[in-house]
Design brief:
The complex is a heterodimer of chains A (387) and B (136).
Chain A: E1 9-19, H1 28-43, E2 52-56, H2 67-70, E3 77-81, H3 91-101, E4 107-114, H4 116-119, H5 122-130, H6 133-137, H7 143-156, H8 163-177, H9 191-196, E5 199-201, E6 204-205, E7 214-223, H10 224-227, E8 235-243, H11 257-260, H12 266-276, E9 285-288, H13 293-302, H14 311-314, H15 317-320, H16 334-337, H17 344-355, E10 367-371, E11 379-385
Chain B: H1 13-20, E1 24-29, E2 51-56, E3 59-68, E4 82-89, E5 95-101, E6 112-122, E7 125-134
Parallel strand pairs in B: 5-7
Antiparallel strand pairs in B: 1-2, 3-4, 3-6, 4-5, 6-7
Classes of the chains: A alpha/beta (387), B mainly beta (136).
Chain lengths: 387, 136
């Protein structure tokens, strides 16, 4: 039996603006307003009729401050998902859909904006959320280091081959190099360069890490009834889940031994798929939030696409690329190769892919899983579909 | 109340006091005997608000590690590269993090380590921290 939110709401419009760090043509809120207007133009929807906003990751743009720019008539929902990292990204759809289905809001914008001059470096902001004297006493001051330590356990103890990371990074860059909007457009990943690039925190080298961009993304969500009369083919939310399980969370690296090297998604996997009435085998394409390569691989394992035992067989370049891979992943280039504005491109690309607008289309794709920020204390994922 | 260099303190005030005195103390639930780390105010298993802080030896095995090469802001006082270790204590089911001596040394999961309490600088403040080295 599918869940209460199944197909009741849809994303009707998307907007995304991205700039190399430090080159945005407006301050952060201006870039965000631009992305929201883009999403409304995409949908053929009057921005003044937006009445709800949901964000994640400690976004600084309080929705009430957007009202004058958008002409907002009434603000009925204004909230975000807890957590400093990208773990809450897909939970935003759960909140927006819950509000729409229960009549508390009619048109909700999901957004994330990040322009360095205004909000500082993302890595520092995420870490500031988690920093404590225990961590700094061990020199652990960046998300890269914490994820590196967990990745090391996954490789050294659980036996996941490190080569899987290379396969995933190659697939992201393959898609990015074919996407005119991506930072990697026109550039093939030099594999020797990947293998010999400077160490950040072992086992991560430079290209195992996503690098930050300035920008903003916005997705307009309405009821499926409203969406069918708007400009674009509605992409329906099939399910979304957020949370954490006992033995996982903000525990000073004291997560349960079996969970430590995971990215936390086992807590929501059952709910996520059951509410969509699907299994991992039914998913046509994945937009995989990868802050770091190993966490991307671990996220695929957690979601049930593969296991510690067969991960090397599954996470292979050929399997991960559009149009014909078994499970194309990050078809815009993802955080690695499209650009990183706290992962919001993953959500935007999920919609574009299911509408047939991706630079790397997957023929007849009907379902797309958005895997949220991996390894965050609170994590979330969502599944979208088209009829 | 113990002073911190970063986030507000939780239930682990005694931990910092003990480290400043040169040793490790960890909290055990007086109701059910469970070791909670990070420290809690209330035991979610038995409901007790009583926790006894008990001295523990700084010996354990490596659960995981990373060697940091990038000069992240906040690591200015640490020579690069440096190896951070996550250590499962031998005596109680608790993991602690710290920096390996010698700085940047090699280590593997399962290696046996001994710890010492040291002082480090973070953004101009002195902070007690554990430094681990391989057992002889």
């Amino acid at each position: 039996m599918t869940g209460f939110l199944y197909k009741k709401t849809a994303v009707a419009g998307v907007g995304y603006r991205q700039y190399p760090r430090g080159t945005a043509d407006m301050p952060e809120r201006g870039v965000l307003v631009r992305a929201i207007i883009d999403a409304c133009d995409d949908a053929g929807f009057d921005p003044a009729d937006i009445d709800g906003f949901v964000s994640y990751g400690d976004d600084h743009n309080e929705p009430v401050r957007l009202m004058s720019d958008l002409g907002t008539k009434e603000l009925n929902l204004s909230t975000q998902v807890w957590g400093g990292g990208g773990g809450g990204i897909a939970g935003t759809f759960q909140l927006a859909a819950s509000a729409i289905v229960t009549g508390q809001a009619k048109a909700v914008v999901i957004f994330r904006a990040l322009v360095e001059g205004n909000s500082g470096r993302l890595a520092e902001a995420v870490m500031a959320h988690h920093l404590n004297d225990h961590m700094v006493g061990a020199g652990m001051v960046a998300p890269a280091q914490i994820c590196a330590m967990r990745a090391q356990r996954m490789f050294e103890y659980h036996g996941v081959p490190q080569s899987t990371c290379e396969e995933l990074v190659r697939a992201s860059y393959y898609h990015g190099s074919r996407n005119p909007d991506a930072v990697a457009y026109g550039k093939d990943l030099d594999i020797d360069n990947y293998r010999t690039s400077r160490w950040i925190a072992e086992p991560f080298r430079l290209f195992d890490c996503s690098r930050e961009n300035d920008g903003a993304g916005a997705l307009l969500m309405v009821s499926s009834d409203v969406a069918k009369d708007l400009a674009k083919n509605p992409v329906k939310l099939l399910s979304a889940a957020q949370g954490a399980e006992k033995g996982w969370g903000d525990l000073l690296e004291n997560d349960d031994p079996d969970l430590y090297a995971t990215t936390g998604f086992r807590a929501i996997r059952q709910r996520l798929f059951a509410q969509a009435g699907l299994t991992p085998a039914d998913i046509d394409v994945v937009q995989l939030y990868e802050n770091f390569s190993a966490q991307g691989v671990a996220s695929l394992i957690d979601h049930g696409f593969c296991t510690y035992e067969n991960v090397a067989e599954f996470v292979r370049f050929e399997n991960l690329i559009a149009p014909n891979g078994k499970l194309p992943v990050n078809t815009s280039g993802g955080n690695f190769a499209h650009g990183f504005v706290h992962g919001i491109i993953c959500a935007v690309e999920a919609i574009r892919q299911l509408r047939g607008e991706s630079a790397n289309p997957v023929p007849d794709a009907k379902t797309c899983l958005l895997a949220g920020g991996p390894g965050s204390p609170t994590i979330s994922s969502a599944i979208f579909g088209v009829d | 109340m113990a002073e911190t260099a970063t986030a507000p303190i939780g239930a682990e005030g005694r931990y910092w006091e003990a480290l400043r005195e040169g040793h490790l103390e960890l909290p055990q639930c007086a109701g059910c005997g469970r070791w909670h780390w990070p420290a809690v105010f209330r035991c979610g298993e038995c409901g007790s608000w009583q926790h006894d802080w008990k001295k523990q030896p700084l010996v354990g095995t490596v659960f995981s590690w990373t060697r940091t090469h990038h000069p992240f802001g906040g690591t200015e006082s640490i020579e690069k590269p440096f190896t951070s270790v996550l250590v499962t204590l031998d005596a109680v089911p608790v993991r602690l993090i710290g920096i390996l001596r010698p700085t940047g040394g090699n280590v593997a999961i399962g290696d046996h380590l001994e710890g010492q309490v040291a002082t480090m600088k973070f953004r101009g403040r002195d902070l007690p921290a554990i430094r681990w080295s391989k057992s002889l």
